[in-house]
Structures are given as structure tokens and as C-alpha cells.
Specification:
The complex is a heterodimer of chains A (112) and B (114). Chain A is an all-beta fold. In chain A, 0% of the residues lie in helices and 54% in strands. In chain A, strand 4 and strand 5 form a beta hairpin. Chain A starts with a strand and ends with a strand. Helices cover 0% and strands 54% of the residues of chain B. In chain B, the strands form two sheets. In chain B, strands 2, 4, 5, 6, 9, 10 and 11 form a seven-stranded mixed β-sheet that branches. The mean pLDDT of chain B is 92. The chains are: A mainly beta (112), B mainly beta (114).
């Protein structure tokens, strides 16, 4: 079982719709969770982080964390073509200092 | 531009040659990380430094790989006797004291081993 699992996609949503990206993790003791956006040929860029169960909103982005079920999700409201990218889920595992473990990413396509 | 710079952006080398990459982190960041990413995969942790001390190395980092951060500022990653399997994007990231998990990535060095 991979430590951080994501559906590779592509996930295709029409412009203006809500995109829902999901991630599950295996280390039950994980404390911190991150979403990075990566455009093709570019490096990852941090867009959201969440530490506590529940929802965290920042503009059009909402991160949701459920530690009991070991999943974290990212919702993108009013999706725009510029949101088309790969979204990487990253988890800070227990006992690993500052080493983040990344999933393989979900490719999002926002269509006109 | 995150403020983390990497050089070179691209490197093409022949199998068996040595290569060295450089990373300049954001100036006030005390932690520096090296990750490797191949097509269709997420970044894989290689190693990280706190100031000049190398605190953790991945099992992925074979003896052919060595990293240094001699004065706690820039870092170099050297790969000796390159193999075709070393072809990947090598990403450097840094983080701010007190916000250690929030990584700021450089643009990466794309290595192609022929």
C-alpha cells in the first residue's frame, strides 16, 4: 500500500463547476497535510495546508481533513481553465522531521 | 518565482559521467531539501539540511549521490557515475524557521542521462 494515494485522473470538469480532488494516507499518526499545484513543466507550488479535522477555506479553495477515515480532499469552486494542472497531496508523517511524502498527483482539466 | 534558484535548468550527460547541481534557497530559510521527480510521479524525498547539517537521507540516495551545504547557504547535489535511471527532475526546496513543512520549490534541474 502506498503511503499517499491519489487517483491520477485526468479529472475533467467544466468551467464554473466544483472540482473535487481526493487523497488517502496510510500513516494514522500523520499530523499535517498539504496540497501543491504543479503546472506542466513547472515546480510544485503550495496552495493549501490543513492540520485539524474539518474544513479550511481560502478563496475558491477548501481543504477537508478526516483523520478517522485517513483522507484529505481539496475542493475548487468556480473552476477556471487556469486551474488545469496536477494537484499533489503531501503528508508529514510521524517521526520523519520535516520530510513530506507526496502522492502521484491528480491531473485536473477544466474545459470551456 | 519562489526565490529558490537552481542551476542548471537542464543537464544532458552520458552514462558514467559525474554531474553537480546547485541550489540557492531563500536567504532566511534554514532548511533545504532535495527531491527527485520522474514523469507521472510525485516528488520523492532524497535528503535535507538544517543549516549546514545533513539531518536525513533517503534510502533512495545511493552511494553515488552526495549532497553538501557547506556554509548553511547554497547546496550542491552530486551524482557520480550517472546511470540512465538517474534521469529525472531534481527539485530543491527550502523552508522558513518555524514553518518547516511549507516548502518553496525551485524550478528544478532536468537531468537526462544518455
Amino acid at each position: 500500500q502506498k503511503e499517499v494515494e491519489q487517483n491520477s485522473g485526468p479529472l475533467s470538469v467544466p468551467e464554473g463547476a466544483i472540482a473535487s480532488l481526493n487523497c488517502t494516507y496510510s500513516d494514522r499518526g500523520s499530523q499535517s497535510f498539504f496540497w501543491y499545484r504543479q503546472y506542466s513543466g513547472k515546480s510544485p507550488e503550495l496552495i493549501m495546508f490543513i492540520y485539524s479535522n474539518g474544513d479550511k477555506e481560502d478563496g475558491r479553495f477548501t481543504a477537508q481533513l478526516n483523520k478517522a477515515s485517513q483522507y484529505v480532499s481539496l475542493l475548487i469552486r468556480d473552476s477556471q481553465p487556469s486551474d488545469s494542472a496536477t494537484y499533489l497531496c503531501a503528508v508529514l508523517n510521524t517521526g520523519t522531521a520535516s520530510k513530506l511524502t507526496f502522492g502521484t498527483g491528480t491531473r485536473l482539466q477544466v474545459t470551456l | 518565482d519562489t526565490g529558490v534558484s537552481q542551476d542548471p535548468r537542464h543537464k544532458i550527460t552520458k552514462r558514467g559521467q559525474n554531474v553537480t547541481f546547485r541550489c540557492d534557497p531563500i536567504s532566511e530559510h534554514n532548511r533545504l531539501y532535495w527531491y527527485r521527480q520522474t514523469l507521472g510521479q510525485g516528488p520523492e524525498f532524497l535528503t535535507y539540511f538544517q543549516n549546514e547539517a545533513q539531518l536525513e537521507k533517503s534510502r533512495l540516495l545511493s552511494d553515488r549521490f552526495s549532497a553538501e551545504r557547506p556554509k548553511g547557504s547554497f547546496s550542491t547535489l552530486e551524482i557520480q557515475r550517472t546511470e540512465q535511471g538517474d534521469s529525472a527532475m531534481y527539485l530543491c526546496a527550502s523552508s522558513l524557521r518555524g514553518q518547516n513543512e511549507k516548502l518553496f520549490f525551485g524550478s528544478g534541474t532536468q537531468l537526462s542521462v544518455l
